[in-house]
Structure formats: C-alpha cells, structure tokens
Amino acid sequence: ALGSRAEIIKADGFEVAGQHLPPPTARGAVLIDPSYEIKTEYADVPRQIEKLWRRWPQGVYFLWYPMLPSLGYRDMLTALRNGPIKNILISEVRLAEPPQQGYRMDGSGIAIINCPWNEPMMMQMTNAIAASLPQKAFGDAYWLDNKKIDSLGQVER
C-alpha cells in the first residue's frame, strides 16, 4: 500500500515531470527508469535530469541504468559528473559472468541525486543485494564526483 503520499504515473516521465515538480510537499523522490532502447537516451538523460533538478534541486532522484558492454552508461555518468549536479551517489552491481550465453547486461546501476544515505551505508546495501543474487556478483558504491572514468569506461578504484 503506497498510502496517500505516493503517486505512480505510467507515462513518459520526462514529459510529465514538469507538471509535477516541485511537489506540494518539501520532500519526495523521483524514480527515472528510461528504456535505453533509443540510441540517444544515454546523451539525453543527463540533460533531462538537469532540467528536473533545476525545477526542484532538493529532490531525491533515482536513475536506473543497465551496465551493457557498449559502455553508454559510462558516457551518461561522465555527462552527469561534468554537469551542475554535484551530490550524486552511485550504486552498481556487476555480475561475475552473464547468467546465460548471449546475455548482454553485465550488471545494473543506480545514480542517486541527493542520496539520503552515506557512502558506507550505500555500500552495505549494494553488497547485500549482490550477495542475494543466485549468481556471483560484485557491488560498488561511490560518489560520482570522487571518481574518474577513463576512455575505456573504467571507474578508477
């Protein structure tokens, strides 16, 4: 039960977000789950998030992304890091091996703007998720501003 303080809107989030931000209350969260089927989405998402953030800079934003071999998500994270938003905590779970032949997703990540948790707590949650999967997986959590992403898409450790 979501209660009266939550609302689920099934539509293109970026199209309707302007109608709902800022919310009437001072607190809230926005879950962003793009399809990533359109080739330009990795480039478009940081610009769209910046528009939302400018309307409501104190909001908590959760951006889910797949970790694919094409590394489009790393370009997206680099664009987010180079933008005006500076309070972004990343949580990623990477599979040791894809669960089946031809499976393209190596893992999954979430970028959290204005994260309500600190890095050690987020690392604990991320590792718990990785440990709960049926196949071997590794978790990582880090502040986006504190990490360099190289030309191969690797995050410095």
Brief summary:
By secondary structure, this protein is α+β, with helices and mostly antiparallel strands.
Tag the structure with descriptive keywords.
single chain, 157 residues, alpha+beta, five-stranded mixed sheet, 4 helices
Question: How would you characterize this protein structure?
Answer:
The chain is of the alpha+beta class and 157 residues long. The chain has four helices and five strands. The protein has helices at residues 13-20, 41-55, 72-82, 119-132; strands at residues 29-32, 60-67, 88-95, 107-113, 137-143. It has a five-stranded mixed beta sheet with strand order 1-2-4-3-5, with helices on both faces. Strand 1, helix 2 and strand 2 (60-67) form a beta-alpha-beta unit. Helix 2 (41-55) packs parallel to helix 3. The longest helix is centred in the first third of the chain and has 15 residues, at 41-55. It is globular.
Write the layout of secondary structure elements.
Layout: H1 13-20, E1 29-32, H2 41-55, E2 60-67, H3 72-82, E3 88-95, E4 107-113, H4 119-132, E5 137-143
Parallel strand pairs: 1-2
Antiparallel strand pairs: 2-4, 3-4, 3-5
Helix pairs in contact: 2-3
Structural category is alpha+beta
Major β-sheet profile: 5 strands, mixed
Order of helices and strands: HEHEHEEHE
Strand content: 15-25%
Number of helices: 4
How much helix, percentage-wise, in residues?
A: 25-40%
For the termini, the CA-CA separation is 40 Å
Mean of all residue-level pLDDT scores: 85
Shape: globular
Uncertain spans: none
Gyration radius (Cα, Å) is 16 Å
Instruction: Tell me how many strands there are.
Output: 5
Task: Please give the order of strands in the largest beta sheet.
Answer: 1-2-4-3-5
